Amino acid sequence: YGRTAVFEMLPATRELKEAIATKMKPEAMVALARQQGLRTLREAAMRKLAMGETTFEEVVRVTTHG
Fold this sequence. Notes:
- The protein is mostly helical.
- It is built from 4 helices and no strands.
- The radius of gyration is 15 Å and the shape is elongated.
- The two termini are 27 Å apart.
């Protein structure tokens, strides 16, 4: 129907579960999440843009807060 899904996903790895359980500092947890494969919604949308699956305007619309 002319729509494509864009997801921000974080795999629940053993390392991330341990980080949550030990109350790792947020900055360190973000760095670990990035190492473990986290891609932001905007990054996922930009990938769809590069593949011609969406438009720049749509990327901005769905990834801009406010």
